[in-house]
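Onboarding guide, step 5: your first structure request.
Type a short instruction followed by the sequence, for example:

Predict the 3D structure of this protein.
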Amino acid sequence: MTTTDSGREASGERENTAERTGSGKGRPADAARSTDRSGPPGATAADRDSASAATADRSSASGPTSDSDTAADNDLGAAGSQLSTAPQEDAPHLPSLGVIGWARWFWRQLTSMRIALLLLFMLSLAAIPGSLIPQSGQDETKVADFMERHDTLGPVYEKLGLFHVYGSVWFSAIYILLFVSLIGCIVPRTWQFVGQLRGRPPGAPKRLTRLPAYATWRTTAPPEEVREVALKALRKRRFRAHLVGDAVAAEKGYLREAGNLAFHVALIVMLIAFAWGQLYRSEGNKLIVEGDGFANTLTQYDDFKSGNLFTAEDLNPFSFDLKNFRGTYETSGPNKGTPRIYEAYIDYAVGADGKERSTKIEVNKPLEIGDSKVYLVSHGYAPVITVRDAKGKVVFSDAAPLLPLDSNVTSSGAIKVMDGYTNAQGKREQLGFQAFFLPSYGGKNTAVVSQFPALLNPVLNLEPYHGDLGVDSGVPQSVYRLEKRKLKAYKDSEGATVRENLKPGETMKLPGGNGTVTFDGVKEWAGFQVTQQPGSGWALGGAITAILGLAGSLFIQRRRVWVRAVAGPDGVTVVEMAGLGRSESAKVPEELGDLAAAVHDEAPTVVEIARAAPAARLPAENAGSNSPSPQTPAVPSEGAEK
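The system replies with structure tokens like these:
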């Protein structure tokens, strides 16, 4: 038996070349161009050394070839058709004149895979400004600040739509063209692939010797028996196989094209999911002190941003109260102060009349209500203070959340008394306190920073001011920052600015009998982020499908195998096997060798039969051929003894 592969040197049974041609006229075989030992060999070493002589005999015996013969050699017919649904590349030509011709040309260019990849790359580039430049839909304050600081660049960005990239005309144009390109490319390929699945593998080409992987041998088994054995062997290896004339046609690896199509369909699903999520998304943050609550309405958020098509009616109706916050920290070692547990215990209800339920929210373990997710994102302390005016009347008594400055929760902020305060002269004023809080103060002669994030030695540092806070001017200001332009600091008897450290239960007296400030204790606060991201599940599913589809299209090879068995002029069956893959790969000849071995076990070569039974004789009419004599001992190649 002889096997061939396009990258290797020819060998074959020199004495049997006339029988392999099927012509009976001593014409050498067209097959044996190169050898491959992947199948069960039956040729001797001497036979392999005579490959060049066989090739020379073939060229001389065949005589001149006509143009029609050459065309037949170069055309494999349906067997050589593409092993994928990719559109064939035609020779470059100018489109027909006229509107229809140009439209057809433009559509072919738009729906090509090259243009789809180019548009995908352009979309990636177009998204970069959206992450570098502040966006109006996400942070109006930063956009206004950018416009104020850049007199020239700001208006240019505004005209180009760089402050709202994802809703701009040019970004939408790229997005829509990418959709059209992918859909226009995938739909016809999908229908073509469905047609391939419903059809059968094409019949064998006229000359199997032209295929890159080839094997042949002669056997006394009837052709019908050889084809039946080949059919069973192919189906056992999960090939789609059937009989076509004198050959068995089989094909395998359809999952490669299925994976390719799945990848591109998943890409479309991901694009739709991302677009849907950007248009209807919402994200809001809320700081809640222990004992306070929250209702999911726009007015309750500290800050809120949403997509262009989002409306207030899209908010899921629910509410919750923060009952307690629990945090523990590492007390020693290199990770001292690192949080170990962050848990917020809440009572929540869904809808206006929903039943109240208790749960806890942890970091990366949000509370899910409908398509809304409530995340625990931050934590801090809120000192509780009581402010009294000159007459001893309580004008403020509440917890004031302060923002952490470092990992040990050294915090700062402002406490504002806007209404109800009267000074010692009976004049109405507003009070403001610049506040610093240290949950674990190191003591006197240490840095004014917290030494540990837990409440080990809490100290509140207050610097009082009086006058106009500026909150009535109509200009928005941060609740954590004190606007001091119209405020005056309190001075002590020596003219120094009043500033005191208070421990829980201690009171600070304002100079001139203008009132008192008492540090009553400390509460903890938790920061929550409420998000609605529709389409996130579809995006995740599309991403997973895309990865699986891409893996299938890269690692699965689509290939075809044909097994032809016909009776030669001397009555001996000539078996030919050939394989064709979509791309060059060692897998096709290796797989063909395994298949040839399986068929060869049931239909061994004439040489092996002659060695097993020396008394056997070939038909008398073949006595004049150059076939080897049965009495001549043949040395089989490695593995032929099987």
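Each response can be followed by summary notes, for example: Residues 182 and 304 are 35 Å apart (CA to CA).
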